């Protein structure tokens, strides 16, 4: 069974994207093993502390290397991805051994699915820029990525509600990512 590592781009406890990841986890039940990446303790990238890598960085790198694929669920902040997501991918893109630019990084070659929920733009700016970043650092971004609009009531209740069309989009993304779309089959 394939192992998919979930990365949620929001630290908020009631994050809509965390709720979305919970929903997709249910869709993957019995089809793939889902693990969640905890990266809250990863420091800001800084070459002064790059080698030896901080313990938190080593831990997330090992989790990424052990996964068959990654699935990112993230909100959009000011037309782009959250800073914590950028910081994580900056660390994952760096050499694992000082001065070794030949050996693959923790993320190079990893298949990555992108999903986000947010306002009227449905995280389109974030997903576009995240695709550019991930491609630049050598990851393989799966298509289609999915962006969903949060219903108006959720903004006051903190409860994400998905309509049937959104559920269908997510089910199709799961099927595609699991191999029917040639990504991790």
The DSSP helix count reads 6
Helix fraction, binned, reads: 25-40%
Category from helices, strands and their pairing: alpha/beta
Radius of gyration: 16 Å
Beta-strand content estimate: 15-25%
Mean pLDDT: 94
Instruction: Determine the N-to-C terminus distance.
Output: 10 Å
What is the total tally of β strands? 6
Assembly state (oligomeric):
single chain
- The coarse silhouette is globular
Order of helices and strands: EHEHEHEHEEHH
Largest sheet: 6 strands, parallel
Uncertain spans: none
Can you describe this structure?
Helix content is about 40%, strand content about 15%. It is built from six helices and six strands; from the N terminus they run E-H-E-H-E-H-E-H-E-E-H-H. The protein has helices at about 15-30, 55-65, 85-95, 125-135, 155, 165-180; strands at about 1-10, 30-35, 70-75, 110-120, 140, 145-150. Strands 1, 2, 3, 4, 5 and 6 form a six-stranded parallel sheet that branches. Strand 1, helix 1 and strand 2 form a beta-alpha-beta unit. The N and C termini lie close together (about 10 Å). The model has no long low-confidence stretch (mean pLDDT about 95).
Helix-strand blueprint:
Elements: E1 2-8, H1 16-28, E2 32-36, H2 55-66, E3 69-73, H3 83-93, E4 111-118, H4 124-136, E5 140-141, E6 146-149, H5 154-157, H6 164-180
Parallel strand pairs: 1-2, 1-3, 3-4, 4-5, 4-6
Question: How would you concisely characterize the structure shown here?
Answer:
This protein is α/β, with parallel strands linked by helices and 185 residues long. The chain contains six helices and six strands.
């Amino acid at each position: 069974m394939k192992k998919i590592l979930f990365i949620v781009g929001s630290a908020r406890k009631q994050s809509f994207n965390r709720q979305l990841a919970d929903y997709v986890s249910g869709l993957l039940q019995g089809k793939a093993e889902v693990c969640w990446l905890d990266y809250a303790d990863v420091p800001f990238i800084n070459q002064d502390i790059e080698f030896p890598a901080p313990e938190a960085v080593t831990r997330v790198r090992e989790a990424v290397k052990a996964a068959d694929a990654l699935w990112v669920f993230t909100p959009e902040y000011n037309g782009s991805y959250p800073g914590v997501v950028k910081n994580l991918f900056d660390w994952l893109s760096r050499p694992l051994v000082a001065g070794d630019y030949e050996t693959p990084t923790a993320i190079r070659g990893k298949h990555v699915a992108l999903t986000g929920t947010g306002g009227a733009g449905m995280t389109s700016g974030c997903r576009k820029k995240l695709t550019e970043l991930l491609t630049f650092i050598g990851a393989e971004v799966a298509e289609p990525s999915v962006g969903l609009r949060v219903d108006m009531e959720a903004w006051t209740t903190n409860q994400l509600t998905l309509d049937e069309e959104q559920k269908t989009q997510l089910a199709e993304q799961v099927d595609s990512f699991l191999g029917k779309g040639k990504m991790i089959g």
